[in-house]
Amino acid sequence: MVYLIDRGDKMGKTLTEKILSRGSGKSVSPGDVIETNVDIVAFHDLTGYHVIEVMERANMLKIHDTNSLVIAFDHLAPPPDVRSAEIQQYIRGFAKALKIRNFHDVGYGILHQILLEKYVLPGHIVIAADSHTTTSGALGAFSQGMGASDVAATIITGKTWMTVPYPFKIVLSGRLGNWVTGKDVALEILRVFKADYFNGMAIEVFIEEPKSFPMDYRATVANMGIEMNADALMFVPDEITINYITDMRGLMPKAISPDNDAEYVDVYTIELDKVDLLVSAPHSVDNVKSVREVSSIDVDYVFIGSCTNGRLSDLEIAAKIVKGRKVKTRCIVIPASWSIFRKAMELGYIQTLVEAGCIVTYGTCGPCIGGHFGIAAPNEVVVSTSNRNFIGRMGSSQAKIYLSGPSIAAATAVLGKIAEPGDVI
Hints:
The protein has 3 domains: about 35-160, 2-Layer Sandwich (Aconitase, domain 3); about 165-275, Aconitase, Domain 2; about 280-425, Aconitase, domain 3 (2-Layer Sandwich). It is about 30% helix and about 20% strand. It is built from 13 helices and 18 strands. Helix 2 (about 45-55) packs across helix 3 (about 80-95), helix 2 crosses helix 5 (about 150-155) and helix 10 crosses helix 12 (about 350-355). The longest helix has 16 residues, at about 80-95.
């Protein structure tokens, strides 16, 4: 598909163009094929083995900048079998031999959450060996998942190549209703545009009232940018971005914004007060329905967590709904990092969830990828706050997975059938 953008001499630049112009050292426009410097490159245990393998086969076991490389064990952490343990042992050896400072072993957290908490800054270019690298776009970074060969090349050279994507502008207007969260906004975008519309585009999200859309919600939407088939999804940095980084790391980042006269392929406004509580029904992320269309379907198992919805606000919502009640389904809750788990303990959310009958751990992808810690059996119905529901994603190919935000997931766990918070509280 070819998009026409008039590039007059006085035309301003989008956030995408500004970031990639800085990285490449020249002015860029959509459609340009460029080589760019990369600020952060990362991998986890499931993909890291292949990245290192590529480097070894090329006889180029070296790192351009050890400070730019981030490694985290999350997908099969703790290792559920001998092969997973061997792979993690192999990567530990790599990290030790090359003196990798930013190595996070089992128990620290999910890679994408760690990048948000500790490393990514507005305007960064982030490349990682995982498709949900788009999560870092919550902080206004151009972040993209790539395969093992590309990531290995980036580690070795500090650079990568890409085609500059065409920019698409989404405006968030107003405020969300009760119990509606960033997950519902992500699903609303998928409902309208489906899962293949944004191929070759970078979505830039503008928030008219920054305080109406907190960082946790932004991370959820950015995380699902890849489900929209976008090359990247970035929130334009604002006061919430600055405050988040200052609170997490004690530093004041530089802001970066698109020019006022920047031109986009198109602009779409979402009126937040009109966004409904939504679910993605089996077996496609863009099979989006109002929760009322699927209410009362019996559910076997609920998963609250992942790099999509394992943040503090998600746990707060779940705890409010299950407090003083007992869950009727199996309910597994996994905060995305040790930092989030610790804060949730301090605030009493973990105790509330455990007393309601939930099983709680932290810092692992686990059931999201069908890896461990809650595999779906044949013919089971699952409600999950993760990001994908295609056949076999969480275990058996005969399981049915519904995606939702934390409020629907928690209400469903309490009632044993798909429900909304108003059915419980």
